[in-house]
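step: validate -> pass
step: tokenize input -> pass
step: predict -> running
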Amino acid sequence: MPKITQILVQSNKKDRCSIFVDGEFFAGVSLETAYKFGLKNDMEITAEKLSEIVSEGERTDAMNKAVQYVSKTLKTKKQVKTYLLGKGYQDSTVYYVIDKLKEFKYIDDVEYSKRYIESNKSSGRRLIEYKLMMKGVRKEDIFAAYDSVEIPANENALAVAKKHIKNKELSKENLSKTYRYLVGKGFSYEETEYALSKLKEGE
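step: predict -> pass
step: emit ->
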């Protein structure tokens, strides 16, 4: 039967160790996993059993890191995936962790979108949708978020317009610049027209 011939603490990661079986490197695991399963030198163990231990250990380690990552601020599924892959975890481990995080509501792209929408009142829907999609949020999740929040888009556009043209003359040139600014911020034609009409009316 295969035998663990050496367990070495990794020089660049003091919380992990390398497992050698029959004199050859087998896998790296956290020290916590090695301790939990009682791995030690001269221990006889099948390759299948050791693979199970390594897989379980990696899942636990990845889950702990993911929970710590999302506990600071809400993250999208894509952000968590990128983070874990960057840590060197296998695809199967990453997808396992993401499924668990979704199950426990640590990841919720609809909720993330709702908070993002509510905290970005100075941007129009087109720009917000674009930025959320760049974060990996699906269109259906963005639409679901918009369906569940009340956004006074016209008033938001007016507030942005007022701030942009503050202390400036309401000239045709300045109004045109404000129009282009609002469009660039993602506001629709109707919202932009509403804001400019109110500016002209002196509101």
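step: describe -> The radius of gyration is 27 Å.
step: cleanup -> pass
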